[in-house]
Every structure is written in C-alpha cells, then in structure tokens.
Design a protein that fits this description.
The complex is a heterodimer of chains A (about 350) and B (about 400). Chain A is about 70% helix and about 0% strand. Chain A is mainly alpha-helical and about 350 residues long. Chain A has one domain (about 5-350): Up-down Bundle (Amino acid/polyamine transporter I). Chain B has about 400 residues and is of the alpha/beta class. Helix content of chain B is about 35%, strand content about 30%. Chain B has 14 helices and 14 strands. Chain B has helices at about 1-25, 85-95, 110-115, 120-130, 145-150, 160-165, 170-175, 180-190, 245-255, 315-320, 325-350, 355-365, 365-370, 375-380; strands at about 40-50, 55-60, 75-80, 100, 105-110, 135-140, 150-155, 195-205, 225-235, 240-245, 265, 275-290, 295-310, 380-390. The chains are: A mainly alpha (about 350), B alpha/beta (about 400). The interface of A and B includes residues 235, 250 and 271 of A.
Chain lengths: ~350, ~400
C-alpha cells in the first residue's frame, strides 16, 4: 500500500485537523476565559506545533512506531507502550465522536430525532477504524478543499454581523481563567499523537518537520480567525452558543431572502468532521495491528468492538454529554499532554532506533 | 481475474455505499416531513405575568387551504398558564396533542406587567432552546400580550404577521420603529451595559370594524385591529424603565445612523404650517471621551430635502426642492429638543442605550471601574447637530 505523501499530510494539518476545533471548543473556552479565549488557543497551537515538529522529525528514521520502540525497549515493552497509546487514542475519540452526534441531532433536526438517525454512523465508524491508516492520504486530498471551502464560506457570511470590538479589553479575565482554559483545551489537541501512529507510513521529504509545523500553524491561524469572529458575533452570549460553526453565519443579511444558504458550508464541515472524529480511534486500531504484527482478524475485530462500545456509550450518555466533556477536560486533562507532547519529545530523545547512515 | 479485481475494489465500493448511507441519514432531516396533524407550528408567543407565574398565548399556524381563494396563513391561539414559560409551552402538548415546534417562532411579545420585571426571567427559556432561532423579534405591548396575540388583524391573516410587518427594514429605515432580536437584546443584557430596548406595540380598533361582540380571532364578527410600534420601551437590567415617544424614537434611530428616506416635520413660521422633510443621509453617532470626567458627544449630521410644505406652493417651488434656512434652523432646533429629551430620559433611567459603558469597558478597564455607576449621570453632554439641504 502506498505511503501518505507529504502533500496529503500538509492538507491534513492545515485543513482537516482544524475542523475538530470548531464545534464545542469555542463555547467551552468562552465559558472559562471569556473574550480572552484566544490566548489558551494560541498556547495550545504553539505547543501542538512544537509537538508536530518533534513527531515529524521522527519520520526521517523511516520506521513505524512499534519497530522504533521495539529496537530500543524490546518487543514486550513496545507492545505495552503501543497498547497504552492506542487506549489513549480510543479515549480521545470519545469527545469528538459525541460532539458530532449532538451536533447532528441539534443542528440538522428541528426537534430531537430518534436514536436511529445517528446509529448508522457507527457502522461507518467501524469501517473506517478497520481501514489501514495509509488510506487516509487519499481521503485528505478530497477532504482538505471541502474543509477549506466550508470554513471560508462560513467566515465570509459571518463578517457582516461581527463586531471585533467584542474581543476587547485584551486581558481582562486574569491568569486563573487563562491557565484553566489552556488546561481544559488539551482534550481537543491530540494531532501529534495521531501523527505518531503514522511514523513509517509517510513518505520522507526534506524539511517535512518544519513544513508540517508551519501548515499546522496555518490551520491554527484559520481556527483563531474563526474564534475571533465567533466572539465578535456573539460577544457576551458566546458562552451559550453550542456548535459554534453552525451559528456564526446565520445572521447573514441575505438569509432572510434566500433561506439558510449557510447550511451548504455547515454540511461541508460536518462531512469533514465525520471523518476527523473517528481518526484517533482509527489510528489506535492501526497501531495495535502494527504492534501485534498484523494478525488478520485483529483490526476488524477491534474496530467492530470499539464501534459497539462507542454506540453503547453514546446511548447511555445521551443526556450526560456535558458531564462527559467535564470529566475529560477537567479531571483527566493531564492524560493528553503525556501522549501528545511528552511522548514525541521522549521518542525524539531516544538514542536507539536511529537510521544507520 | 474478475473476482480478484472485485475484491480489490470492494473496500472503496463499501466506503462509498456507507458514506452515502450516512449522508442520507445525517442530512435528511427526516426527509423534511412534518406531520402537521401532530405538530404545533408556533408563529408567535405572547407572555403575561399571572398570579402563579405566566400566561402564554401561542399563535399556531394551521392549514387553511391550498386554492387561491382561501390560501394563506390561518392560525389558532392556545392560551396556557404555568409557573414558568416552559410549563406553559409544554401544556400545549397536554391540551392539544400537538408537539410544539418553535423553529418558526418569529415574535415574542411581552405584556405590560411582565416587561416591568426582569424579562430574562422567562426569555432564558428561549435562549436555552436549541431548536429555536434567536433571530426572532421581541416587542413589548400595552396591556395584555395574550390579548394582542389573540386579536384579529385588519391587515393580515394573523396578528403576529401584522406586527412583524411593522418591523420591516423599510419601517426601520424610515426611523419609525427600532427593532430588536432576541440575540441583540441578550447581548445588551448580559454585557456590561445591562440595557436594551423593545418596540412598544399598541393596538387600535380598526374604524368600521365591529367593536362589540365576541373577541375571538376566528370569529367573523370579531373586531379587527391595527397595530403601531412607533414608541420604544427602554430597559435597564432587563426591566422596562421608561418609554420613548415617537419623536424620541426617531431621534434614537437618527443617532444610530439607521435612517434613509425617513421623514419628520419642522415648523415654518413664514407659512404658518409645519413642513415635512425627507432624510437623504443620516450620519449619526455617539462618542465618548474620558478625561477628568467623561464627555459624551451626540453627533448628528443630516442632509434633507423638502417633501411637503403643507400649504399651497407655486410650481417653481415644487420643482426646485430648496429648503429655507429658517426651516433648517427649526429642524435643528426640533431635533435638538428631541435628542435632549431622549438623553435626559435614558440618563434618569440609567439605561445605557448607546452602549457607552461597553465602549468604556473596551477602551479602559481602569476608567470603567471608576465611572461605571455614574457614567450616564456624571458625563458632560455635548450635542452637535447640523441639518443641511441637498443644494
């Protein structure tokens, strides 16, 4: 199977990965940091870009993560560490997956739809999770322009009703809000952990680490612009606006005449989100398969089991999504930097596993 | 070979099939089907205070017919009572078997008694409702909102359609009404200004319509009403604290820079009758500077044209639309009086109608802390008016 090309990787970092930050994160951060919510976002993106840089430096070693770990720590430890990272990725999938579910149920329906409306998504998720990660490259080629058009369309329709003065005063909420916001936002920044599972599956290119980091920051700039516009449209009521990207463009003057034309762009982003929200679990399954030397049954079996588990969780937590988000972002937020920041840095520091010149 | 090719492309085929299925279920919106036999499509709600909580009149659209002679929007009003507005809306289902659908609700009308208390005590229900648009219009009304919602309009199929007709862009540009949506009122309320406004609706019996008998909107003998919203209720901390007259509403609208092609009257001593002027351009703004004490400048620069003299005029006078200097001076004087009256009213009521506290908060937290309580009463106010003609 052909590897993921650098272009496809850049598309992912600049266009696909930002979509996951546009659903609940703006409201969540506005709740904690008020109109200062751009600062926690900025910090997260700077840290995330550094982590992406470190991870992409490992691409040069030309080995998958299980092989890299196996050469340094031995097979048993490698399998344990890969399993831990996979478990983390399965855990990280919870919030975006349920985000997507509540988003679809709230935005695309006038009243609360039946359970059956979202249930087929888990079939789709199982299929995606069972698919090899290399196949994502072609998907990103298709999804990147879709995401770019979706976000650009929403921003263009939102500018008219935005009052960017709402971002002032620049520093009004204090350090506590800033630090709380930064910590709880970690749950949405797991892209470097996904990249770890792609080691050995991405074509090498000179300067891939720097370029990858810059594309990640480019995506961050787009997210920042969206956050600023979101705050500019809703000012002090931003804390009440769940599913941010479905809300900001609805005050476009032409909508009274033309209807909700912004739904076209919302659909585009929702479509990209459908793939992105399953990606961590897909990466986790792929890593497990790689760590246990690709037994044929393992990938599909884990994928089906996981989809069933996510379905069960989504049904049982139907009205407790808020509590789940709180648990993930407040109680166990520290798990995320361990795998998204610390792991790439430690891997980079490993002396073993270097490619021989 | 064929079998091998089939299995090789199977994942792609499967993925396309699954993705199509997902798209189908995601975006179908139940295929847009709304069972109107089981759904109450709410067009507007009127909210009044009652002894035990609230009384809500919900105007529900019902099918009227599909042929040209009977087509249009017909409605039925359901009045419910409860401890909260949510209670009242839920009772619609209990009483009618119809599931209330708020997505088409375009007007929330607040009764006279209810608007004198913090309106967000009940408006928060609508803000929390993910299935309702926060772009719906808000208005206060004289007397009972339920009575206004249940009244029969002389000009439209439903009272709410007649009232929202008053909030058109054209009416707003004419300076006759200051409209507001749920979103904008909540931004004012939850922001540092803690102020807002609502168009104030009054209803009058239509001349020639029957004034006695049953007041049922569905009855053909019910009296018919027309509505006006030229006055504006001003709110501080969510409660109504004053009422702007139609002249003050126009002044407010002019200062906001909203008016284009609106008209107003100015005295003309030479002819002994007032003349009507049309506003061609409206450059209105309110500026705040903070030195030793805050200075507020109410700035208004209008270009006007003569619209009607009110007395017989020679054809040359009609052909050339020059406005005498004395009329321009009188127009300035009149608008100055209206603006002064508007400012005194909002300062006395502590209603930050122009968002001055918000401006101060955004520019200087220190000065905001110093002046936030006394900004409106302690500020030095300057009025800069200039009314000119097109020539």
């Amino acid at each position: 199977m052909s590897k993921i090309s650098p272009r496809q990787l850049y598309f992912f970092l600049a266009c696909v990965a930002p979509v996951g930050k546009l659903v609940l994160l703006p409201t969540h951060l506005a709740n904690i940091a008020g109109n200062d919510f751009l600062y926690p976002l900025l910090v997260q993106y700077v840290i995330g870009a550094a982590a992406v840089f470190c991870t992409l430096l490992l691409v040069r070693r030309g080995k998958t993560l299980p092989v890299l770990l196996e050469e340094v720590c031995g097979k048993a430890v490698s399998r344990i560490l890969c399993t831990l990272l996979s478990l983390f990725l399965f855990y990280a999938t919870l919030v975006p997956l349920l985000e997507q579910k509540t988003f679809v149920q709230s935005v695309f329906y006038d009243t609360l739809p039946s359970l059956a409306a979202f249930a087929p998504f888990f079939l789709f998720a199982a299929y995606l999770m069972a698919a090899p990660l290399e196949r994502q490259g072609r998907m990103w080629d298709l999804l990147a322009p879709v995401a770019a058009v979706g976000l650009a369309g929403i921003l263009v329709l939102s500018f008219g009703s935005a009052d960017y003065g709402a971002l002032l005063p620049a520093v009004s909420m204090g350090f506590k809000s800033f630090s709380e916001g930064t910590m709880s936002a970690t749950s949405w920044f797991y892209d470097s952990a996904i990249l770890l599972t792609m080691l050995g599956k991405v074509e090498e290119e000179k300067g891939i680490a720097v370029k990858g980091m810059l594309f990640y920051l480019l995506g961050g700039a787009a997210v920042g612009l969206f956050f600023a516009t979101f705050c500019a449209v809703f000012a002090d009521t931003a804390v009440n606006q769940l599913f941010a990207f479905s809300k900001t463009s609805k005050y476009f003057a032409g909508i009274t005449v033309l209807g909700r034309i912004d739904y076209f762009f919302i659909f585009l982003l929702a479509m990209v989100m459908a793939f992105y929200c399953v990606l961590p679990a897909q990466a986790g399954v792929d890593l497990l398969v790689g760590a246990f030397h690709k037994p044929r049954f393992l990938g599909p079996a884990v994928a089906v089991l996981l989809a069933a588990a996510y379905f069960t969780v989504s049904v049982s937590l139907d009205y407790r999504f808020g509590e789940l988000v709180k648990a993930v972002t407040s109680t166990s937020f520290w798990v995320f930097p361990v795998f998204t920041v610390l792991a790439p840095v430690l891997l980079l520091a490993l002396r073993g596993g270097r490619r021989e010149s | 070979m064929k079998a091998e090719k089939f299995f090789r492309t199977l994942p792609m085929k499967l993925s396309i099939l699954l993705f199509a299925l997902i798209l189908f279920t995601f975006f179908s919106n139940d295929f847009g089907l709304v069972d109107i036999q089981k759904t109450a499509i709410i067009l507007a709600v009127g909210i009044d205070k009652s002894d035990d909580g609230y009384t809500v009149a919900s105007q529900i659209a019902v099918p009227k017919g599909s042929d040209r002679t009977t087509g249009g929007t017909s409605s039925v009003e359901i009045v419910t009572e409860g401890a909260t507005v949510s209670d009242c809306i839920t009772q619609i289902y209990a009483r009618t078997g119809w599931v209330p659908k708020m997505v088409f609700c375009n007007l929330i009308l607040i009764g006279e008694e209810a608007v004198h208390e913090d309106v967000f005590g009940f408006l928060n229900y609508f803000l929390r409702n993910e299935y309702m648009s926060d772009s719906c219009f808000l208005a206060a009304c004289e007397g009972s909102a339920c009575r206004v919602i249940s009244s029969r309009s002389a000009v439209a199929d439903a009272s709410s359609l007649a009232i929202t007709g008053l909030f058109s862009d054209a009416a707003k540009k004419a300076g006759r009404v200051m409209t507001i949506t749920l979103k904008d009122l909540s931004i004012g309320y939850y922001g540092v200004s803690k102020s807002g406004y609502l168009p104030y609706v009054r209803m009058r019996l239509q001349e020639g319509s029957q004034s006695s008998g049953e007041e049922e909107s569905g009855s053909s003998t019910a009296p018919q009403y027309v509505y006006s919203a030229e006055e504006t209720a001003i709110l501080s901390n969510g409660a109504m604290v004053g009422l702007l007259t139609d002249s003050e509403t126009l002044a407010f609208s002019l200062l906001k820079g909203n008016v284009f092609a609106g008209t107003f009257n100015a005295p003309d001593e030479q002819k002994g009758r007032p003349v009507t002027l049309t506003v061609l351009s409206d450059d209105g703004k309110v500026e705040l500077k903070v030195g030793a004490r805050p200075e507020v400048t109410l700035h208004l620069d209008l270009r006007v044209r003569l619209c009607c003299r009110g007395v017989t005029a020679p054809l040359e006078d009609i052909a050339g639309d020059s406005v005498p200097d004395s009329v321009l001076a009188n127009a300035e004087e009149k608008l100055d009086g209206d603006i002064l009256s508007l400012w005194r009213k909002i300062a006395a009521a502590d209603c930050d109608l122009f968002g001055l506290r918000r401006t101060l908060y955004r520019t200087s937290l220190k000065e905001y802390g110093r002046w936030k309580e006394t900004l409106l009463t302690g500020a030095a106010v300057t009025r800069e008016l200039h009314v000119s003609t097109t020539n």
